[in-house]
Design brief:
- With about 325 residues, the chain is an alpha/beta fold.
- It folds into two domains: about 170 residues, Peroxisomal Thiolase, Chain A, domain 1 (3-Layer(aba) Sandwich); about 140 residues, Thiolase/Chalcone synthase (Peroxisomal Thiolase, Chain A, domain 1).
- It is built from eleven helices and 13 strands.
- A five-stranded mixed sheet has the order 1-7-6-4-5, with helices on both faces. A four-stranded mixed sheet has the order 8-13-12-11, with helices on both faces. It has a two-stranded antiparallel sheet with strand order 2-3.
- α4 links the parallel β4 and β5.
- α3 packs across α4.
- The longest helix is centred in the C-terminal third of the chain and has 22 residues.
- The radius of gyration is 19 Å and the shape is globular.
- Bound molecules: coenzyme A.
- The site of coenzyme A (COA) has 22 residues, from α2, α6, α8 and β12.
- The site of coenzyme A has 22 residues, from α2, α6, α8 and β12.
């Protein structure tokens, strides 16, 4: 049977840094509140002319270069985003054209903050089935154009940022699972009972005769709503749970794992998971302080930053867990 491995990584963050002090000018909030409740110090926002596929393009180019492949070797795109360029078609199609790729399939998925784990899982299955050999897997988001940047929306808007990350996933042969790069497992879960605890209601066909109308805008239904406390407690519980399950089922122990790359929603969430699971601090790599929550992009950005920091090397055993709207959650265990 075929296996898949991550052979290239790339990321792109728009250059404009937005600090907590900058947000103080837009809404009633404070640097102290944001840092104390979330750990976030700054995030990046795009300018008006930049769209999600632009960020995805830059991250993809870096991943292609890092993998040392020619872009013509890519035989499919799996792209996760909840902030597409347009309602349809998906960002994958725009990215394909910008990259100048041939008529390969371009799959857009959502799955919110677990988007990249889902994308990895799909890519792994495509490669294992023999259907694909070299996939471009991307997580890209522009949140800054969809947030309520007034005091009314402050509980959500201070948390999110823009950015993109990408990986090249290739077919590989695993001779020694204890050393060779490969995806060991991915496990995905969902519970729709939490759907309205973190959501954007409009546009939507459940709203009435029109998918979108001025009335919905007047009611702020186009902005995200979050039940922060429910999301927080479920994130801690579900990420710890799926990580424990993955390690047990794959016959690895917590000590075997070299690096934990969690989704970046709130520094306190990740600290609580580490505390509960007795993970030493130096094994958990966080980027939320600099970039906020970039949803589908947090995991590949985390991998890139960990690589730059010398924490991700060939043979490193990485455990990833993510949680997001839906609720959706999942794990990925892989040797880099
Ligand atoms: C949003 C979150 C940071 C709020 O932290 P919290 O400790 O639960 O804070 P609370 O909701 O209890 O709010 C406390 C107070 O701060 C206020 N507040 C909310 N946002 C604020 C902001 N940006 N600045 C200042 N005050 C703010 C609230 O209005 C509330 O005021 P009140 O006590 O007068 O009513 C936290 O719930 C969280 O991180 N949730 C999960 C987020 C997440 O994971 N999202 C993405 C999922 S993938």
């Amino acid at each position: 049977m075929f296996s898949s491995a991550i052979t290239g990584l790339g990321m792109y963050l728009p250059p404009r840094v937005v600090t907590n002090n900058d947000l103080e000018k837009l809404m009633e909030t404070s640097n102290e509140w944001i840092i104390q409740r979330s750990g976030i110090e700054e995030r990046r926002w795009v300018d008006a002319d930049t769209c999600t596929s632009d960020l995805a393009l830059q991250a993809s180019l870096e991943a292609i270069k890092d993998a040392g492949i020619d872009k013509s070797e890519i035989d499919g795109i799996v792209l996760a985003t909840i902030s597409p360029d347009h309602e349809f078609p998906g960002v994958g199609c725009f990215l394909q054209t910008k990259l100048g790729l041939s008529e390969i399939p371009c799959l857009d998925i959502r799955q919110q903050c677990t988007g990249f784990v889902h994308a990895m899982s799909i890519a792994d299955a495509f490669i294992k089935s023999g259907q694909h050999k070299t996939l471009l897997v991307v997580g890209a988001e522009i949140h800054s154009k969809g947030l309520d940047k007034t005091t009314r929306g402050r509980d959500v808007s201070v948390l999110f940022g823009d950015g993109a990350g990408a990986a090249i996933m290739c077919r590989t042969e695993v001779k020694d699972p204890r050393t060779d790069s490969h995806i060991i497992s991915t496990r995905l879960f969902a519970d729709g009972n939490g759907a309205k605890d973190l959501w954007v209601a409009a546009p939507g066909t459940a709203l009435g005769a029109d998918r979108m109308s001025k009335v919905y805008i007047d009611e702020n239904l186009h902005f995200p709503y979050m039940n922060g406390k429910r999301v927080f407690t479920n994130a801690v519980r579900r990420m710890a749970e799926c990580l424990t399950m993955a390690l047990a089922k794959d016959n690895y122990t917590m000590d075997d794992v070299d690096l934990f790359i969690f989704h970046q929603a709130n520094l306190r969430i990740n600290q609580m998971i580490a505390q509960e699971m007795k993970i030493p601090e130096h094994k958990v790599f966080n980027t939320i302080q600099k970039f906020g929550n970039t949803t589908a992009a947090t995991i590949p950005i985390g991998l890139c930053e960990a690589k730059k920091a010398g924490k991700l090397k060939k043979g490193t055993l990485v455990a990833t867990a993510a949680f997001g709207a839906g609720f959706t959650w999942g794990s990925a265990l892989y040797r880099y």
